[in-house]
Amino acid sequence: MKRTPAIFLTLALFLVALSVQSFGQMPTPAPELKKLEVLSGTWNSEANLKPGPMGPGGKMAMMDKYEWMPGGFFLVLHSSFKGDMGDGTATSFMGYNSDDKQYTYDEFNSMGQRTHSTGSIDGDTWTWSGEDKMGGQMMKNRFIMKMVSPTSYTYKFDISQDGTNWTTVMDGKATKAK
Q1: CATH code assigned to 29-176
Q2: Taking the model in full, what pTM does it have?
């Protein structure tokens, strides 16, 4: 049982060595990752949760700390939140898939949920899109961030059954800590 982590580490090192041998050099982070740098640091936000399929609604305060993982391929986000619908934590990884030409977002939270989204940038607006099961039914979701300044952004989280008719279930504003 104690050998399992060593097996995974050995396999990971073998795959890296194979990758270097196949491609002739160590991979480097995609230039598109530089756009995530604006998020690096600590952010505080307040959100309004709307009554609906996610619960009765209410206020929520969050503290998010973004930092680069060694190697510079992923921005790691550690979040904590407190609100009328409960408290919790989450760990997320933001990156860029060069093959698909899309940003990626993967979150794991203390409520046992996992989220995968892909993202795109249009000017000062980021749109993250995904699909999750809610109440036994698949729902499309999108998280839209609008950078107001290098130290502030607004956001909203929408859900849809059909990908055409959207309902906002949360909106808020985040400010970078000094």
Answers
A1: 2.40.128.20
A2: 0.82
